[in-house]
Specification:
The chain has 15 helices and 12 strands. It is of the alpha+beta class. It has 2 domains: about 200 residues, no CATH class; about 170 residues, no CATH class. Strand 4 and strand 5 form a beta hairpin. The longest helix is centred in the N-terminal third of the chain and has 39 residues. It starts with a helix and ends with a helix.
């Protein structure tokens, strides 16, 4: 019985839609465009976030042990009389101009290195200064590292464009420049550059190579030197660093290991997500805005579905009256027009899904230059496709179709056969 009823509903629905082929095709095309754009938006949004996260993971530690103690030193600022009834003390945990450092860093490195789930530990000293070559100069951040340890933190070795990481290891006064920074001061491989540190002293350095991380801010403003030289520039002793970078075997272990390291060492720790929270939230916010704009494409397609169904109701009033006179229930008539809306939505979603899949693949295959001013740089647009994107798009298309078909279905069910047949 249910099969016969479903067959009847689908038969009437298909007959109505095929009778308005041009309008039906236009509405299906509208839903297909909406589905295609949504699939493409999902792929681009997920691709951008994946690309950013991969680049961050490739160039920075997953966990950073900062040169700040969990419990800072206290200074007594104010206290009441010991004989006062309501005795109070005001203390400060902030010590002005306290240098942020990890010491002795060798003990912390040994402690962290012994933890399960840790596959790389790299102490470093970060300092600011001005880099000069010929008549050009630029402020930059110089990171003093042990090259062989730093190579295990990210993909610095793979990001080298000229020179090598090994050359930095055996060149005591060597410097590895970001490719954008090298371009801005006009320095090249084996050129002699001058670095003025925060202490005002000038150091002659040899360019041991250049690197490209894919992040504009890093490539334009960062450089690497040997750890001992950075300690000298910053006024640190041999057993002091400003922070320690850590890489874990799994991303899932980052948060629990960060808490454990902080507990064991007594120093504050920061995960890669915490360090880049502002950048990640910016791109997520932009993606959300894009999704809202795509929804309006579906809304427009929904109006097209409603328009076709209302037209069918107006043109098929006599047919509707005859069916009701023959005993077709109001609920069945409503299901007929809802089925028509669903057919339009499903057909559009299927066509749009296929088109979105091929369009997404095409876009990811095209060579693209982001330009020198881009936040994230690359030679192509990264896209990601997941089955859940197609499921969500199809469900949303069906929902819009059902909502769009509800009004015309109710209108058809309320028509009075006697008034129509007398007209």
């Amino acid at each position: 019985m249910m099969f016969l009823k479903a067959r009847f509903i689908l038969g009437i629905a298909l007959r109505h839609l095929t009778g308005k082929r041009r309008q039906t095709a236009l509405v299906i095309a509208g839903v297909a465009v909406g589905s295609m754009v949504m699939i493409l938006t999902f792929g681009l949004a997920e691709g951008v976030m994946t690309d950013i996260k991969n680049k961050i993971i490739d160039i920075s530690p997953l966990i950073t042990v900062k040169g700040e103690k969990i419990r800072g030193k206290q200074r007594l600022l104010m206290t009441s009389s010991p004989y006062s009834k309501n005795h109070f003390e005001i203390v400060s945990r902030i010590v002005p101009d306290e240098k942020k450092e990890v010491k002795p860093y060798t003990e912390v490195v040994s402690l962290v290195d012994a933890l399960p789930g840790i596959d790389a530990v790299s102490p470093f000293v970060a300092t600011r200064g001005v880099l000069r070559y010929s008549t050009l100069s630029r402020p930059c951040i110089v990171k003093g590292v042990i090259p062989e340890r730093e190579a295990r933190i990210g993909k610095l070795g793979q990001n080298i464009r000229t020179g090598s990481l090994n050359e930095l290891s055996y060149t005591k006064n060597g410097i590895l420049l970001g490719i954008g920074l090298a371009g801005k001061i006009g320095a090249g491989y084996h050129d002699l550059v001058r670095f003025t540190g925060e202490n005002g002293k000038v150091y002659d350095l040899v360019v041991a190579g250049t690197f490209a991380s894919g992040f504009g801010a890093v490539d334009d403003n960062n450089a690497f030197i040997n750890l001992r030289l950075a300690q000298t520039i910053s006024g640190f002793s041999e057993n002091v660093v400003s922070a320690i970078g850590i890489h874990t075997e799994s991303l899932e272990d980052v948060n629990p290991l960060s808490r454990e390291i902080s507990r064991l060492t007594g120093y504050k720790t920061e995960t890669w997500e915490e360090a880049n929270a502002n950048l990640l939230s910016l791109f997520e916010r932009n993606n959300n805005i894009t999704f809202f704009l795509v929804i309006f494409v579906f809304v427009v397609a929904g109006f097209g579905i409603a328009n076709v169904l209302i037209t069918i109701v107006l043109q098929k009033q006599r047919d509707i009256a005859v069916m009701k006179s023959m005993g077709v229930s109001i609920g069945t008539l409503e299901l007929v027009f809802l089925a028509e809306g669903m057919i339009l939505g499903i057909a559009g979603a299927v066509i749009g899904g296929v088109a979105g899949h091929y369009l997404t693949n095409l876009i990811s295959a095209l060579p693209v230059s982001y330009g020198p001013s881009a936040v994230v740089r690359g030679d192509h647009i990264v896209t990601v496709q997941k089955p859940v994107f197609y499921v969500l798009t199809t469900l949303f298309a069906i929902l819009v179709s059902a909502v769009s078909g509800y009004g015309p279905a109710r209108r058809a069910a309320r028509l009075k056969p006697v008034d129509i047949l007398r007209a």
